[in-house]
Design goal:
single chain; 241 residues; alpha/beta; Spore Coat Polysaccharide Biosynthesis Protein SpsA, Chain A; two-stranded parallel ribbon; globular
Length: 241
């Protein structure tokens, strides 16, 4: 895919300090990249800052939502926005420093031959993370193994949130049917693409724990991921995906 238009979707909630650090680094990777900030009513002024950045740079766009409604719903809104405007590749990316913008060119290159490209923390069977508390590492490692064992999906980083999707994938998986909203959203979207027969490739990234702001991980998110994997498996067996 030598030509085309690419959209990096960045969901935000109280990321005012991180946004000015992240946006320029994303844009400098490729002139074909635009950014969509999807802000869920951040009380710290993230939405207002994003709108100011949008006024200063036409490659930055903002979708403001009234309240915090979950990661999955933010991405679904961003996907629909991007598909309506004809973007060829759509990326998921965190607002903090955890996902390296320097990996974007490699992902764009990989998307020439694959439908889904995953910026993976677990390529080669080992974790490539920096400054992560051991508890988070264990939860993430177990979560990815758990999802892979139940779904038989050939993806090591099933819960990872740094992903590139060809528009054809998102048009085919049935966005309106996706029910997961936390980190299980990443599992469900990948599983639906896998069951549709789309090709998937993982490329290694170094995941770095955020140094500003608060993690959105919670026990409710973990619980959803645990039962949602079985729901996906059962729906697949019944032919209801």
């Amino acid at each position: 895919m030598s030509a085309g238009r690419f959209l990096v979707i960045v969901p935000t909630y109280n990321e005012r300090e991180n946004l000015p650090r992240k946006v320029p680094r994303i844009l400098e990777q490729d002139e074909r990249i635009d950014i969509l900030v999807v802000d869920d009513g951040s009380p710290d002024g993230t939405g207002e800052l994003a709108e100011q950045m949008s006024r200063d740079d036409p490659r930055v766009h903002v979708l403001r939502r009234e309240a915090k409604d979950g990661l999955g719903q933010a991405y679904l809104a961003g996907f629909r926005w991007g598909l309506e405007r004809g973007y060829d590749l759509l990326f998921e990316m965190d607002a903090d420093i955890s996902h390296p913008p320097s990996a974007l060119p490699k992902m764009i290159e990989a998307a020439k031959t694959h439908d889904v490209v995953i910026g993976s923390r677990y390529v080669g069977g080992r974790a490539t993370v920096s400054n992560w508390p051991i508890r988070r590492l264990l939860v993430s490692t177990f979560g990815c193994w758990y999802a892979r064992a139940i779904t038989r999906m050939p993806v090591r980083d099933a819960t990872g949130g740094f992903n590139c999707w060809r528009r054809e994938v998102l048009e085919s998986v049935g966005l309106d049917r996706i029910r997961a909203n936390g980190y299980a959203f990443q599992i469900e979207l990948k599983f639906r693409a896998f069951r549709k027969g789309f090709s998937m490739l993982e490329i290694p990234i170094l995941f770095t724990e955020r140094d500003t702001g608060e993690s959105k991980m919670s026990r409710a998110i973990v619980r959803e991921a645990i039962w949602r994997v079985w729901w996906l498996k059962i729906q697949d067996i019944l032919g209801r995906l």
